[in-house]
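[Solved] Which block belongs to which protein?

Original post:
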Amino acid sequence: MPIYNAPLKDMDFILNDVFKAEEFWQSNENLAHLDMATANAILEEMAKFSKNVILDLNRSADESGGAEFNNGVVTTPAGFKDAFNQFARGGWIGLGANEEWGGQGMPKMLTVLADEMIWSTNPSFMLYPLLTVGAGMAINDRASQEQKETYLPKMYTGEWSGTMCLTEPHSGTDLGIIKTKAEPNEDGSYNITGTKIFITSGEHDLCDNIIHLVLAKTPNAPAGSRGISLFIVPKFLVNADGSLGERNAVAAGSIEHKMGIKGSSTCVMNFDGAKGFMVGKENEGLAGMFVMMNYERLSMGIQGVGASEYAYQNAAQYATDRLQGRATTGAKSPEKPADSILVHGDVRRMLLNVRANNEASRAFAVYVGQQLDITKYSTDAEVVRKANDRVALLTPIAKAYLTDTALQATLEAQMCFGGHGYIREWGMEQCIRDLRIAQIYEGTNGVQAIDLIGRKTTKCAGAFIAEYIAEIREFATTLDDQLSIKATTQKVCDELEALTTFIVEQSKLNSDFSNSVAVDYLHAVGLLSFTYMYARISQAAQQKTEVFFQNKLVLAQYFAAKVLPDLAARTQRIHAGAELVMQLPEEYFTAQA
C-alpha cells in the first residue's frame, strides 16, 4: 500500500530558516498575530487529516471508477462526503480567506504548504475545495457588498461550493469567441444560456448549493475578449433571507471519463436561461476571472510538488526494501541474499533527481506565496509594485515549470519500482495519471510559456526578469564564499541576462521566434529560480550542524552538477531559432507516408 508522511521538518525549515516567516509576519500588523508555533500546529493538523482521512480514499476512488453520473445527478466516491464535512468543520476551506467573511486570513506562504499535503494524498478531493476558494477570491475582489454577504460566508463554511465556467466546446484558450449569452432582465438579473465543458466540481453531492462563476456575453458586447462579462449563477437561487429557493436552470449534461483524477467530477454544464447576476462591470469579466485563474495556476504548481513528494517517499521506501544484486564495491549486506537497490548508482541518481526537484519546488512555491502576501499586506507602494511584477513573471513558472519537472520526477520515481511501478496496487501509475492534467488545465504549459516570453518578457523589453535577476544577484553577494552555489548563482544570472537580451532582440526580427522557443525559455527561467532557491537553502543550512540540514548542501551541489546543465541545452535550442520549426508546410503534418 502507498505511504505518505508529511515533510513537516522541511516545511518548518523553509518557512522559519529560509524565508524568516515569523519576522515577516511580525513586521506586518495584519499578520502579527501569527508565529511559527501556530503555523507548525496548523501544518501538523493538516498532516493528520491528509494521512488519516483522505489518503486511502485516493486509491479507492480511482479503483471504483470515481464520480458517478445518473440523469443529471453526480455522486462522489464513497467516503468523500464525510471527508469533505470534516474538512469544512475544521475550517480548512477558509484557511487563507478574508476574515470578514468567515475565513482565517492565513498568509499564502503558509497555505501553500497546507495545500501541498492534500495534493500529495488525494488530488481528486483537493479539487472540490480548491475551486470554492478560487471562486471566493474572485467574488471577494470584484463583487458587490451584497453579493459578498450573500455567498462568501457559506462558501467558506463548506455549506456551498464554487466553480469556474470558462471553456466551451469550440473555445478553450481563445475565450474571445465564447457563445454563452447573457440576456438582461428588468430586475437587473440576466438569463444565461450556453454550454460549458471541463467544469471541475460542476455537480456533486458534497454540499447544498453550487455557485457557478460564468463567463458570458451581453447583447451588443464588443467582439473578442473585451466583450466578456462575469456572472454568479447559483445552482439554487438564494432568497432574501439567505435560505435556498427554487432550482435554477443549470444542470450537468454528463461527466467526462478521464485518464486520472477520477474522483473529481468534471462536468458538461448546460445553462438554459439560468438566472445570473453580474459581478463587477459589464465587459470586464475576464479580469475578474483572472483573479481566480492566477490563484489556480499557482495551485497547479503545488499539485506538482505534492505528487512528486508522494512519489519520492514511496520510491525511496521501495528502494530501501527491495533486495537485488550487490554493490559494485562489494556486498553491503552480506547477511542478506542481496543488497538493497539503494546501493546502485542509477537508482540513487533517480531518487536524487526527484529529491532535488522537490526541495527547490517547495521553496519556490513558498517564495511566490510570500510575494503574494506582500502584494496583499504591504503598505509600501514601491514594495507592492515589485511584488506584483514578480508574481506576474513567476506565475507561469509556478504553474508550468513545477508541473513539467514534477511529471518527470514521478516518472523517475516509478522507474525505481521496475515492473512493480507499472502495477496499480503500488500507486505509482495512478500518481502519474492524476498529475498529467496539471500540465493541461488552467492554461496548458505551452500557453504559460508563451505568456512568459511575450507579455512578461518581450513586451516589457525584459524589465520584469531584469529586476528579478537583480534581486538574485544581490542575494548572492550575501553568500559565504565557501558555498559553491554562490559562483553558480552569479554565473546563471549572467547567462539568463544574456539569453533574455538575445530573445528580446530576435523577437523584433522574426514574429515566429518567441513562440517557437517559449518552452525552452520557461525552463531556463525555472532553472534560474531553482538555483536561487538552492542559494537560499544553502545559506540557511550552513548555519546548522544536524545531518538533515548539512545534507541539503550536498543536494544543492548535486542540483548544480547534474540538473542545472540542462540550461546549456535550453540555451542552445533557443539560439537555433524558429526557422526549422516553421520551415515545413502545413501539409507535411497531415500527409500520409
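(Second protein starts here: sequence line, then its C-alpha cells.)
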Amino acid sequence: MTRIALLLALLVALPASAQRTSDIVSWRVRADRAQAGGEARVVLDATIRPGWRLYALGSPVGIPLTVTLDPLPPRVRAARLVQATPVEGYDEAFERAYPYFAETGRVVQVLAVGEGAEAGSREVSGSVRYAVCDDRICLPPTETAFRVPLVVE
C-alpha cells in the first residue's frame, strides 16, 4: 500500500517538475544608444504566460528578481536598477504583501557612460535571476544570460 501511495505522489508531482521556467517566461533585451557623459538604458522585457506571476525586484516573499552584470567596458558603470510598476499581491502563507509581474514585466538597468568613453560599439552582458509561481506551484529559480551591444556615439 505504501508503494502505491508513493507512486501516486510521484505521478502527481511529475507534471509540476516537467514545467520549465523558460517555457513560462521569455526575455527580450535591448540597449539604447548613449552619448559620452550621459546615460544608457539596458531594457529587459519579460513576457509571462497567463496565470503565472514573476516576483519583482525586492519582493519580501519568494525569490525576487535580480540582475547581475558582467564586468562592464571601460568608462561605463552601473548607475541604478528600476522596474515598471508591479502588481501588488498578498501571500496568505507569509501574511505579507509582495510585488509581482503578470503577463509582462520590465526592468531597466541604467548605465552611466563616462565623459572619456570612446565612440563605438561594445558589449554589455549579464544575467537575470527570477522565479515564477501560479496558484498551485512555484518553480525553482532560473538564471537567464543576456548579451546586448551598447553603442556610444
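Accepted answer:
You had them paired correctly. Confirming on the second one: Helices lie at 2-18, 21-24.
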